[in-house]
Amino acid sequence: MIDFLRGTVAHLENEYVVLDVQGVGYRVFCPNPFAIAKTEGSVTVYIHHHVREDAILLFGFATREEQKLFRKLIDVSGIGPKVALGVLAGGTPDQVVSAIYQENLTFLTKLPGIGKKTAQRMVLDLKDKLDGLGNVTIASGLFAVPEPVQGDGSAWSEAREGLQALGYTDAELDHVWQKIKEDTAFGETVDVLMKRALKQLYAG
Question: Is the domain covering 65-134 a CATH 1.10.287.1080 domain?
Answer without folding.
Answer: no
